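Query structure, 435 tokens:
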């Protein structure tokens, strides 16, 4: 044995009792948090070091629930995607930003950080101290945020079937609600424009000023509608390009040639969950194929027939990929979660050929079993009214109760369904056949 290996290994001089156990427990809580609680866990972990009125995460990886929030209700209930998107656009890299931003309808002091790989945004309102600078507290914020952002990416990539279905339903509901609001406000504003442009009205200056303001409001409304649609749909060509970027690090140093057959540029846009699932499935297939011996080339092709995204991944190996392998079974379950199909042809001596079909439209579902929600009879009745599109006043009148009682039932519904808004509750109800 050499002199180097004869040296005894010295143990750490720090007693276990001196370790920062509260902080370590907080780190573990963030790492283990479900998607619905990750904002709350992150805020709890940060509060001993950085006070705040609210914490908001904005991530496009979760198309059904792009915002994850914790803190003051007057902030988390009013902050909008447009405000968060505007703030994110001002951040050039992962450097923390301190300043005043329009959030929840008014300027607020905020700390903002962007995650480089996912472009997710963290916003902490009214941070205390107001500007901690580059000190230990800020380093901790950056560390925990980086951990949370990566966990969100991992959890979305490995999302269970229930999450995928509910997220997709919420996405569809958001499009529907946005379209209705756009039509409503556009009609109102266009009528106002017609009246103000009338030659029968006096005060030309007033007409000109109001006309300009209204025209700008129309443009902003249309922009918000388009932005919301962008969050839940992704052009097929853009989705495929993101796939190529994802796979480049996997194949660059493996010696395996990656061939990509691009989809038609005018193909139908993909729902967010389909785009995410498609990339995850292809990544999984490529990794499984790379583990085989004698694979030198993997070809990936996407196509779109207007109703389905069609995926084909093929290798030139010796056909050693097993259809019942755990990695393939996991991918098959993910495909089935979106009512898709996965078929694999293994040709001994000639490689594996995998075909995946993912429907672009959410299938209609019969009324599902909602007993697991443990809803009281009144709560179920309120949920049915919400699913029908009724507002609180209409629900109160139909049920013979006060609006405050309706609000009480709605709050209970949110807790039992684990949702954060009426839109999500309606989407979940529709997904279980309640209309």
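Result returned for the query:
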């Amino acid at each position: 044995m050499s002199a180097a290996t004869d040296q005894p290994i010295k143990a750490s001089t720090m007693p276990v009792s001196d370790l920062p156990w509260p902080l370590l427990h907080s780190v573990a809580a963030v790492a283990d948090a479900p998607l619905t609680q990750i904002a709350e866990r992150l805020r709890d972990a940060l509060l001993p070091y950085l006070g705040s009125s609210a914490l908001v995460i904005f991530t496009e990886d979760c198309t059904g629930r792009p915002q994850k929030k914790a803190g003051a209700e007057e902030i988390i209930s009013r902050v909008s995607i447009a405000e968060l998107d505007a703030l994110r656009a001002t951040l050039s890299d992962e450097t923390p930003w301190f300043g005043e931003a329009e959030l929840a309808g008014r300027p607020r002091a905020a700390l903002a950080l962007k995650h480089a790989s996912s472009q997710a945004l963290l916003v902490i309102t009214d941070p205390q101290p107001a500007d901690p600078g580059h000190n230990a507290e800020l380093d901790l914020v950056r560390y925990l945020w980086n951990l949370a952002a990566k966990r969100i990416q991992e959890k979305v990539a490995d999302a269970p079937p229930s999450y995928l279905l509910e997220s997709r339903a919420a996405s569809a509901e958001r499009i529907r609600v946005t379209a209705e609001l756009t039509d409503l406000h556009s009609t109102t504003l266009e009528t106002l424009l017609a009246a103000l442009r009338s030659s029968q009205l006096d005060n030309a200056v007033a007409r000109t000023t109001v006309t300009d303001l209204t025209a700008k409001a129309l443009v902003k409304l249309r922009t918000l509608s388009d932005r919301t649609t962008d969050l839940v749909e992704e052009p097929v060509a853009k989705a495929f390009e993101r796939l190529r970027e994802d796979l480049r690090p996997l194949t660059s140093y493996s010696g395996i040639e990656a061939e990509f057959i691009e989809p038609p540029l005018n193909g139908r846009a993909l729902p967010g969950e389909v785009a995410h699932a498609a990339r995850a499935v292809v990544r999984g297939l490529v990794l499984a194929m790379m583990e085989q011996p004698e694979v030198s080339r993997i070809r990936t092709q996407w196509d779109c027939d207007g109703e389905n995204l069609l995926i084909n991944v093929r290798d030139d190996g010796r056909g050693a990929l097993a259809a019942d392998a755990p990695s393939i079974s996991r991918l098959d379950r993910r495909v089935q979660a979106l009512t898709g199909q996965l078929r694999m042809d293994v040709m001994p001596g000639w490689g594996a050929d995998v075909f995946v079909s993912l429907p672009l439209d959410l299938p209609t579902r019969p009324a599902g079993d909602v007993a697991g929600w443990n809803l009281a009879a009144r709560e179920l009745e309120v949920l049915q009214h919400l699913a029908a599109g009724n507002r609180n006043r209409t629900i109160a009148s139909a049920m013979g109760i006060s609006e405050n009682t309706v609000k009480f039932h709605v709050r209970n519904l949110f807790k039992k369904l684990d949702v954060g808004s009426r839109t999500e509750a309606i989407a979940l109800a529709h997904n279980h056949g309640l209309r």
